[in-house]
Structure formats: C-alpha cells, structure tokens
Design brief:
The chain folds into 2 domains: about 70 residues, no CATH class; about 90 residues, no CATH class. Helix content is about 80%, strand content about 0%. The longest helix has about 30 residues.
Length: about 190
C-alpha cells in the first residue's frame, strides 16, 4: 500500500514538472510569446521552471528555436522519476537503461500532452470561449493540425483534422510502447 502511494506521488510530481518543462520548451520552439495575453500563465511557468533552466542555460547553448536547457531539464526530471520508481520497485537501478527509459517516458509524456491539448482545443471549439484563449490554443495546436489540413480540408464545414491527429498520436503511442517493451527485453 505504501509503495503504491509513493509511486503515485512520484509519478504525479514527475508528470507535473516534466509537463511544465516541456510546455516551456514547446512554446519557445514554436516562438509563442506567452506574455501576450497570458502573462499569468507565463509567470507561473517561468517561476516554477527557472530554478533548473537558468543554471543550465549558462552551460548549454540556446539556438534560435531549440531551448536545450528546458528540454534537458525535462529529461533530467523524467530520469529522476524513473530512478526513484526503479529504486522503490526493484531496490536498485542501472544508469544507462534508466536514461533510455527516461527518453521513452519523456516521449510518452509529450504524446499525452499533445493529446490533451488537442482534446481541450476540440472541446472548446464547440463552446463560446474567450477569443484570446481560442487564439492561444490555435497557436499551440497549429503545428500538429496544419499538415493534416493541407491534405484533408474541412468536409461540409467540419474540420476532422483533430480526429486524424488524435488517431495518429495513438498509433505513435502504440509504436512507442512496443519499442519500449522491446528495449526492456534487451536489458
């Protein structure tokens, strides 16, 4: 019982922090200015992630589009989560497999985040919301939906690109799970 509670707390904390770091990384990747209309959200994210990102930024290069400090912070937090779970469940961990498993978990977290974002975008498109929120969500989802919309335009005024993107993300998740299982069997 205590192990299950500890695992729940570790997974929850890991998901929260990884989500924040990945969101910060993604917003910088797509050049989304969080301060325009979303000052509170940007202050929240930056204040919670600056403790790890700023020291790493002194060491790691930040290119025009790729914020390596935010990405590495997400990977490190994910790795710590994998190590803590391994220690709790098995009583030990191995350095290299845990790094690879952290990559798989990070990719899974990214897929889950994009899936959640697309579902929120779809739900809010059916109800009247603040136009700024709609614009913000459109900017976040555009990199995933634009390529699909090029090939499949709206049919009778209904955009099915979100549905197709969700199916593709689930396929990607299935491939990722099978790759992870294959990798675990190699260890």
């Amino acid at each position: 019982m205590f192990t299950q509670i500890a695992l729940l707390l570790i997974k929850t904390a890991t998901s929260f922090w990884v989500g924040l770091f990945l969101f910060r990384w993604y917003c910088l990747l797509i050049k989304l200015n969080l301060s325009q209309g979303f000052g509170q959200l940007s202050h929240f994210i930056f204040q919670l992630t600056d403790w790890a990102v700023l020291p790493l930024r002194r060491v790691l290069p930040k290119t025009a589009r790729f914020d390596s400090a935010s990405f590495l912070s997400a990977l490190l937090v994910q790795w710590v989560g994998v190590v803590l779970q391994s220690l709790l469940m098995a009583g030990y961990f191995s350095l290299f497999p845990s790094v690879e498993l952290a990559f798989f978990e990070l990719a899974s977290s990214a897929i889950s985040g994009v899936t959640g974002l697309l579902i929120i975008f779809a739900l809010l498109s059916w109800v009247s919301v603040n136009p700024e929120v709609q614009i913000f969500l459109d900017k976040l989802t555009r990199p995933f939906l634009s390529p699909i919309r090029k090939f499949i335009p709206p049919i009778a005024g209904i955009d099915i690109s979100i549905l197709i993107a969700l199916v593709l993300l689930q396929i990607l998740n299935i491939v990722l799970v099978n790759l992870r299982l294959w990798f675990v069997t190699l260890m």
